[in-house]
Amino acid sequence: MFDKTKDNTKESLARHVAGATVRHNSPFADLDIIENAEPLSRELITKYVVPFYLGSKDTDAFRKNYLVLKDSINIELVSSLLGDFDWRPRSVGAYFAALGCMNELEENIGNLLLRSNVCYAGHDYCLALASFSSSQAINYLDRYLEHYLNQKDLWFDQGSAMAALVFIGTHRGEDLVTPYRDAWDAFVSNKLNWNLASFIEDFAQQMQSLNEFKAEINNK
Which of 40, 177, 179, 216 is most deeply buried (CB count within 10 A of its CB)? Predict the structure, then answer.
């Protein structure tokens, strides 16, 4: 009995460290996602995750590290990063997918956003979907907001999803976010520091940085 309790405690701690800090019932729990059969190697994490997951991505250090590894960052690698349960590889994987125009991974990234099994990675899922700017990307963001704006106790990535829709809509000449304004106002009624204009401005700046770096990569 003691051993079982100890094992459960270790598993709970591991999940918490990985980013599964909030348990929630989701209608998206059964959506298909890439799931690795084995943990990522320490070497892979050291090489492809550690230099990229923390801090701003709009830095010379981030760009330099990425360019050194660019030729080895392919669909297989990024799929493995997204297939890990930890938020750190998932976050890096989503950003790499955006930089590499890996639209083949859009469904997986969209399903990861909808499932929201781990915290901290959702913002980068939204950046990736905004970079794809497809009708399917809009659909994932719509479904996310339709559900999670009605979950006032889940302080997840609703702001990033709203900002992603604004970004996509601006570039398509469409108003994609007005249908969610009332739900947003209700959702943030107990969140005094959640300012939609700030979310939109910050997201747009990050997308500008991402797209500028993407253009630089394509020109090399």
Answer: 177
